[in-house]
Fold YHS domain-containing protein.
Amino acid sequence: MNKVLFAAAFMLAAHITFAQKSEIFAPKGKAIKGYDVVAFFKESRPVEGADSLMYHYKGADWLFASRANLETFKAAPDMYVPQYGGYCAYGTSQGHKAPTEAETWTIANNKLYFNYNMKVKNNWSEKREELIEKADVQWPLIKDKQ
């Protein structure tokens, strides 16, 4: 039993480590947990993508809800890739990577941002411009780290 628990814990730790080493927040290889990043801009809400509408970019699989959104992304992916690879904007401003939830999304200055949870998003929103400046400095230093 202990061996099984150890093996499970090791596999979980390896998965978390892999996910956070990536420049893109991509649990199980799916960027932004499989949400369609173009939909945040076009529909102003989180929309889950379909496995059948996938595009591999920056080491992650990006899923889309429609062929039109997939083609829009392929034409200009850097317009839609979230800032800081989809990791928490507040966490990035503090010098570390943190996972995010889709409902914490914000578009500011035509850029997509995510946060760890709604409480963190509210704190980030209070000083958004200042924290974006800090995160912009921190991101190149941490994007390839765990």
In short: The longest helix spans residues 2-21. Strands lie at 50-57, 60-64, 101-108, 111-115.
